[in-house]
Amino acid sequence: MHILLTNDDGYHASGIQTLYRSLRSLTEHDISIVAPESERSATGHSITLFHPLFVTEHDLDSHQKGFAVSGTPSDCVKLAIQGGLINKPDLLISGINQGSNLGTDVFYSGTVSAAMEGVILGVPSLAVSLANYQFTDFEPSAVYLAKHLDYIIKCHKKGLLNINFPGKPQSKWAGVKVTRLGKAIYDNVFERRVDPHGRAYYWQCGNRAEDLEDDTDLRAIQEDFISITPMHSDLTDFKGIEPWKKYFNTSNSLLDNGV
Amino acid sequence: MHILLTNDDGYHASGIQTLYRSLRSLTEHDISIVAPESERSATGHSITLFHPLFVTEHDLDSHQKGFAVSGTPSDCVKLAIQGGLINKPDLLISGINQGSNLGTDVFYSGTVSAAMEGVILGVPSLAVSLANYQFTDFEPSAVYLAKHLDYIIKCHKKGLLNINFPGKPQSKWAGVKVTRLGKAIYDNVFERRVDPHGRAYYWQCGNRAEDLEDDTDLRAIQEDFISITPMHSDLTDFKGIEPWKKYFNTSNSLLDNGV
């Protein structure tokens, strides 16, 4: 199988490089890397339309190149697959990210958006995060993933698995939970300051309030479980269609009614 | 009611200013504007964590200020609601955008992401787009919206309505369709060039292939209907949870198994 690795912490980040080494040593798969040349966290699903994208090649091993792209995580996936930078992969893995990607925060996440771009382009994807900005030992998460990869590849034929590992040594992991996305609510989100010229400005920050709902990814990580959330790519609210149809479809005449 | 307007084309764009004037003249609602100070198209749901946000005040009318923010559409919504820039709105309208926001393209859309940010913060939202980059008469769309706004406010208590107007004169509108999100597929996505120094670079471009599936927003706009798609904010694939539980929850022992 051919696996494409990308991330939002940048090509040289420890998370993606550790994952690459683990997959190379513990699996037989072909591994490509196409990742942003620098950190692009919190870029969400942005893409670059109005600037050109430059690509820098790096030696990945003796017979293969890795690609660093001057764009966002989603640009990397599009360029890799649609720009013909590599052969179409069978699986995309985005990560391992430094810091969690949980609940509604997945909308802001470059890591999850890159994986979602894979899904849109027909490639089953994983988004993988280590849920702590300070804890930097990616090895146990990478090894866990490598050891389960054959089963995941066998069963994961479409969509996205959003995987968050506890940001703690493996001895403290409580187990695995398959979860739903929770609600990531923040308090104290903007800190107002005044610059030396007297202009007000705002820093976005804030602490995430605890999510005490059952079965969520946020709760699982709070309790030191590995959280695995299956995700799809369709934001249509199908239940909402019929009620609105009653109003709008029967009100086509409104178009003539002076509107 | 208090309505917050934002967009991704920037505070001074014709779409948002036309919408403001139509809502002021045709409705009795209080209207605030908090929008990016410059164009931020295709920014997706990105937020600004590592730079401060500056806010410029503009006279909106004799008794009210509008706010232009040095950030993304999602920053604007967060700063407006969580940063206390305005009172919490009852409804958020993002737009009117110059150009369509249809199908899987909603993931890249600053317009839709701003509306989704409203939903995450508990404010029912509309994303409104004019489906043509060249056609610039926002007036009929703005008036249509203003005339239906009271019904929308009465029925739209949570989630997002993604509304695309045909990019044509109103005399050519075919009616209204309530739709699901389609698949926005592009061909010829990257054009490879070589710069004067010999370095290869890539422009992202490409034409959207036609979506011939029934009931989609893409199809509705192709056929000159106004498209209205109800959207939610939960990307969990609930059907995927049980199959993965069987493997992962019963394989907690794998944690001890050398992993």
Question: Any key phrases for this structure?
Answer:
homodimer; 259 residues; alpha/beta; Stationary-phase Survival Protein Sure Homolog, Chain: A; nine-stranded mixed β-sheet; two-stranded antiparallel ribbon; 6 helices; 26% helix; globular; cytoplasm (chains A, B)
3D structure, described in words:
Chains A, B: It is an enzyme of class 3 (hydrolase). Chains A, B: Belongs to the SurE nucleotidase family. Chains A, B: InterPro entries: SurE, SurE-like_Pase/nucleotidase, SurE-like_sf. Chains A, B: Its EC number is 3.1.3.5. Two copies of one chain form a homodimer. Chain A is α/β, with parallel strands linked by helices and 259 residues long. Chain A has a single domain, classed as Stationary-phase Survival Protein Sure Homolog, Chain: A. The first copy, chain A, is 26% helix and 29% strand. Chain A has six helices and 13 strands. In chain A, the strands form three sheets. In chain A, strands 3-4-2-1-5-6-7-13-8 form a nine-stranded mixed sheet, with helices on both faces. In chain A, strand 3 and strand 4 form a beta hairpin. The termini of chain A are far apart. The mean pLDDT of chain A is 91. Chains A and B meet through strand 3, helix 2, helix 3, helix 4 and strand 8 of A and strand 3, helix 2, helix 3, helix 4 and strand 8 of B. Strand 11 of chain A pairs antiparallel with strand 3 of chain B, so a sheet runs across the interface.
